[in-house]
Every structure is written in structure tokens, then in C-alpha cells.
Amino acid sequence: MKTLLIDDDDFALKLLQRQMQNVGHGDVSLCVRARDAVDLLEAQPEAFDLVFCDLQMPDMDGVEFMRHLGRIGYRGGLVLVSGEDGRILQTARRLAQAHQIDLLGTLHQPVSIDRLRKVLARRATQRGAAPGTGQVAFPPADIAAAITGGQLVNHYQPQVDLRTGALVGVEALVRWQHPQAGLVYPDRFIGVAEEHDLMDGLTRAVLAAGLRQAQQWREAGLDLQLAVNISMDNLAALNFPEVVVGLACEADVALNRLVLEVTESRLMTQDTRVPLDIVTRLRLKGVGLSIDDFGTGHSSLAQLRDMPFDEIKLDRSFVHGVAADASLAAIVQGTLTMAHQLGMKSVAEGIEEQADWDFLRAHGCDVAQGYFIARPMPGAALPTWYADWQRRAGTLVQGLPAASEDGMAEAGA
Ligand code: C2E
Ligand code: MG
Ligand code: MG
């Protein structure tokens, strides 16, 4: 692995070089000027797999440097080294994401060997696992054929009550069982489907399959709420509530067991009267309405004001890591307070580890969803997972006093 180290401080640079040697990464080049590093990378963007860059340098700071990396199309990993405080590093991290740079981590100066090892290990695991980038989009005709040809399958991710650990519902997440490409994730076809007017058919397929599955689970003794993602496009046809009612009747599922999750993936350009008419009628029929990815650019306070939502889904970019980040903690706590005051149910998505779970639980969030609880799975796998979860949940809901106002902590089973 070829590494480039950049720091205006010659001593810091040599020290880092020595540390890299100590952890078995001796193949490094050094630059005291970021400008030289940019020239090097520009000439040969693939010459280095890894770049360490000091955030604060006189000739060019780390932010400017990342802008260059983005422009050059550098595809390796980046580590930011800095003495700056957490919030600046956090912003730098977001910026790296926006530039689609694979930021492996940030290191505080003086760099500890342990942290360095961790960051390098991340490089090893992320390599080869990096999905998405560079993959070509599918032609709309193929997607249309997949919808009508029954190639779409739903996976389901459990949602559990944070106080009691009880399984309360699932979110249906669509996948495409592609004959050649294997299992294709929605980020590779929803956008194209939206651009080519395919969302009516897609949503109908997901809803129908989800409702049938919910009915089957109920027969097996699991009465679960079903959440389905819909697109703004679905809120353009005035008969959408009738479609939903029809499908729910067919599957014999009560409308109050269904939640529709909305994100504004595209700006609401059409007349707002139509979407409002639709969602209000759905709510009147008892269907739940959730504002998905809340807090991101597309799911805003204005939407919350204008639409009759009864559930807020905190975006996972605020949830994972919340316990260790003061900014995230403030945002999450503020959102939970607001949800509570508005009488809305709060759902946290992207709970990846116990610390996330403990934080959300202690701060009175209602429902949890995320890899820590379960990854999305085929419907048939749910009962097996559930049996296992019942054993696990007992310990997860013990001990912690829930901080919500009405919140008496419930002892685990
Ligand atoms: P979403 O509705 O916000 O769904 C949550 C996404 O986060 C899912 O990705 C899920 O697999 C992932 N996820 C769940 N837990 C964790 C976690 O702990 N950590 C991390 N890093 N990720 C987690 P997926 O299935 O790839 O779906 C991506 C998006 O595609 C969904 O985001 C939703 O906006 C859209 N989508 C999925 N199915 C449908 C559908 O049937 N219709 C529409 N219109 N959109 C859909
Ligand atoms: Mg969703
Ligand atoms: Mg979401």
C-alpha cells in the first residue's frame, strides 16, 4: 500500500512516517506542501492508495485539499490529522462525504499508535466492500419489466419498542432479484423508476407483497405493523388512497396496521393541493404517515408543518454515533422533544450499536430500527430472528431508567 503524508510541520511529518513504519506501512512519500501533493496526485491519481493530510496548513488547508481530491477524482482513502476540536472535524467528515472521498477517519495530534492501527484496519475492511460507485444505472425498460415480471422482492427490517423490546412492526425495503446481477439494492433503481414514471407500479408491487406477508405473519401469530416507503410521485394521483384501500382489503389487513413513509426525494413541484388531499384522506382512513429521513435536506420542518404526519423517523446520519457526539446528541434530543410535544411517534433508524440503543432509550425515543436489532431480511426469515430476539431483548431493556416523562423503566422479561 502506497501512502502519501502531508504536513507543513516537518517534525510531525517525520514522526508520522516513523509511526507508519512501526505498524508495517513503510512505503510512504512525504510532502511539506499540499500544493506539491495535489500536483503529484493530479499527474497520477492512482499512484497512492492512502493519503494522510494535516487539516491546518498555511499554503492550503485540508478543506481546500479535499476539494482538489474531489476534482481530481482520487479514489483512495483519506485520513485527516488535526489538533482541531470535534465539531470542525465532524464538518470536515461531512465535506469528505460530499466529495465522495473515502474518509477512513480523523486522527488527533499527537497521533496514537492505537488509533493509527484502527484507521489502517478500516482501510483493509473497506477495500473491496465499497459498493455503488461507478456502477451503471439500469435502463428504465428493464426496471419496468422487473416490476411487471415479479422480479421485485421485499426484505423486511424489524422495528422494536425501545422501552419493552417488543417487536412492533417491520419496514418493507424493496430489492430486485436480477437474473444476472443478483440482488440489486433500491439506490440503483428507485431514482430511474422515479424519472420514468414507474413508481405507481413499483409501489403497488411492494404494497401488495408487504400486505400479503403481513397477513401470513398474522396467521402465524405475529400481528405486525407494516411500513412501506412511498415516493412523492405516488401522491400525484388522486385515486392513490383507493389503491391502498383495495390492496389492504384483498390481503385482509386493517388500514391502521399500515404506515406510509414519505421522503421528498424530489421537490414538490406539482400543486400541493393534490398531495395534501391524498395524505389527509389516507390519515382519515386510519393509515399512518411517517416523515422519513427526518432532518435531512428533503424532510424539513416545513413539511412537518404542512402534512398530517403522525410519526417522525430520525435519519440514521443523526442516530449512529449519537452517544459520542455532542452535536448529534443535541439534534436528536431536540427532535425527540419536538416529536413528543407534537404528539408524534418517534422512530430512530440506523441504530448500529449498543451505545446508540442506550442513548435513544434513555432519551425516550419510542421505536428502534437498525443493524443492531436486525438487518433487513426475507419475510420467511423473520420468525427465526424473532425467537432469537426475544432472548436478546431481555437484557437490552433491563436496568436503564427510561427518561421519558411518563417513562417508568420496564423490567425485561
Ligand atoms: P429508508 O427508507 O430510509 O430505509 C432505510 C435504509 O437504511 C435501508 O436501505 C436499510 O437497509 C438501511 N439501514 C437499516 N438499518 C441500518 C443501519 O443500522 N445502518 C445503516 N448504515 N443502514 C441501515 P435500503 O434498503 O438500501 O433502502 C434505501 C432507500 O431506498 C430507503 O431508505 C428508501 O428511501 C428507498 N426505498 C427502499 N424501498 C423502497 C420502496 O419500496 N419504495 C420507495 N419509494 N423507496 C424505497
Ligand atoms: Mg423508509
Ligand atoms: Mg430513512
Describe this structure in words.
The chain is α/β, with parallel strands linked by helices and 413 residues long. The protein has 2 domains: 3-129, Response regulator (Rossmann fold, 3-Layer(aba) Sandwich); 140-411, TIM Barrel, CATH 3.20.20.450. Helix content is 41%, strand content 20%. It contains 15 helices and 15 strands. The chain has helices at 10-22, 34-43, 62-72, 86-98, 113-126, 140-148, 190-195, 199-219, 240-251, 273-284, 301-306, 316-319, 326-341, 354-362, 382-396, and strands at 3-6, 28-31, 50-54, 77-82, 102-108, 152-161, 167-178, 182-184, 225-230, 258-262, 288-294, 311-314, 345-349, 367-369, 377-378. The protein has an 8-stranded mixed barrel. The protein has a 5-stranded parallel beta sheet with strand order 2-1-3-4-5, sandwiched between helices. α2 (34-43) packs parallel to α3 and α8 packs parallel to α9. The radius of gyration is 24 Å and the shape is globular. The termini are far apart. The model is unreliable at 127-134 and 402-413 (pLDDT under 50). One magnesium ion binds at residues 171, 229, 261, 292.
